[in-house]
Amino acid sequence: MTFFESSQWDGLVYSGGWTKSDGGSQPVMEPATGGTIGSFGVALASDVAKAAEQAKGAQLKWQATSFEEKAAIFRKAGSLIEEHADVAMHWLIREAGSGQGKAGFEAHLVAGEFYSAAAMAEAPYGQLLRTGKPRLSFARRLPAGTVGVISPFNFPQILSSRSVAPALAAGNAVILKPDPRTAVSGGLFLAALLEEAGLPEGLFHVLPGGAEAGQALIEEPSVRVISFTGSTGAGRAVGEAAARHLKRAHLELGGNSALIVLDDVDLDAAASAGAWGSFLHQGQICMTTGRHIVHESIYSEYIDRLAEKAEKLPVGNPATSDVPLGPVINAAQRDKIHGLVRGSVDAGARLAAGGTYEELFYRPTVLADSELNHPGFAEEIFGPVAPVMKFSSVEEAVHIATASDYGLSLGILTTDAMKGLAVADRIPSGIVHINDQTVDDESVAPFGGVGFSGTGARFGGAEANLEAFTETQWVTMQGEIARYPF
Ligand code: NAD
Question: Which pLDDT value is given to residue 457?
Fold first, then answer.
């Protein structure tokens, strides 16, 4: 059986089946070659309104569907993505510029999301409460209704499915607006997967589009919860619009995550972890190690080893060779990266490796002698760049690490794990890894940031997902009508 043939979806959106949208269609671009590899339907506000109408009816039926039936669909979706991992990876590689390892890891994570959703559909969904009256009192979690999901380009499949799967498992309908740069791997592929798994028609809609379609989703009255993953700037606009419409918005935003390297580490392992944290997927990860904060006694040696790794890393077209690093997503992103690198060098940073590019292939770059006010150290780069700054005391390392508005992930490398945890206690961050770099994700672990990295929303784990995608209802029941004095 062939799966996800382009004849099924080319030029279309998924909304009550495969259909044309009011916004026409747009080409799917391949960043590595600049070529066109298909087309997808573009959604306008009118498409969002039609989808929302269908979703309302489908959601009511889905809410009443047995948990066994729901769980079976998610188990099937999980096994389908394992069966068709090659197709998932094909699109992640060609449309998103993912290296083969990253694409395989992402497809594996997506399968995990659907298996976790199956478990969530079967899990308890409320609490029995104590009450002073002769009655039963309990709190139950009910579906919010229709959930709007807005996702970014960098890990398009996992960042869509980590909201889509639990929102559906909680009994909601979902309208997904993937980024138009990854409409296929972050949207249409998931539609085909869930359709094949037996999800009822009209319950899940995929409407690729830009900010306008995203705003229409937020304004649509029947969409009660928004799950947004993207930049801090866009997240602020989403949060403001959601607040105006009195809706809950879960915001997972940008980062500039710190890796603190204490003086007692194995330098080879530390430099390897640092290179992985900064260069994986060309640094286009929210949790990317954006700041290396290294003890002065090992600083020069660390820079040398990191720069050597950067220089040796092959960069190329991941569709034609098994290179670890592919292209960045587009020219605008490349120019932003290069501007921050040049700005840092102009401010006094030393280019220990990289700093050059060909077309969309940006060389892994090490910015030594970074300072707090260098743009590449202070801002999220979202590119394969490792800015490094030295410290002389733990106090100073904590000061540097906390001098950022972001708070997504934090890595601390040391042979003394308890000392690492004590340092972590002093730095606000949604995620901490002692003796690892900053990039990691597991479907069962709570994921989210603080400060400019998000509103403390948490993905991962049945409890967090239930909190995110349901409303709590307090219910009391007694055998007779309560008696009152008047
Ligand atoms: P982006 O904010 O430009 O776009 C993300 C999504 O939001 C896209 O679907 C886009 O079309 C949509 N969008 C943009 N403006 C909007 C608006 N005003 N209203 C509604 N929707 C709007 O982000 P990007 O450049 O695609 O992704 C990179 C950013 O995402 C980085 O900052 C990165 O750190 C962040 N990110 C965060 C996480 C996380 O979990 N915290 C994960 C991945 C990426």
Answer: 67
Does 332 map to a domain?
Answer: yes
- Whether the pLDDT of residue 1 is over 70: the answer is no
The phi, psi pair for 178, rounded to 5°, reads -80, 165
The pLDDT score that the predictor gives to residue 464 is 86
Q: Annotated catalytic, 240?
A: no
Helix (H, G, I), strand (E, B) or coil at 452: coil
Task: Look up the domain containing 426 and give its range.
Answer: 257-434
Going by C-alpha positions, the residue among 71, 294, 28 that lies closest to residue 183 is 28
286 labelled catalytic: yes
Answer yes or no: do 168 and 302 share one domain: no
User: 62 in ligand 1 pocket by Cβ < 6 Å?
Assistant: no
Strands of the sheet containing 470-477, edge to edge, are: 126-129, 136-143, 470-477
Mean pLDDT of 415-420: 98
Residue 113 Cβ < 6 Å to ligand 1: no
pLDDT tens profile 274-333: 999 999 999 999 999 999 999 999 999 999 999 999 999 999 999 999 999 999 999 999
Q: Which atom of ligand 1 is nearest to the CA of 233?
A: 2
Is 240 in the same domain as 117?
Answer: yes
| Judgement on whether residues 41 and 178 belong to the same structural domain of the protein | yes
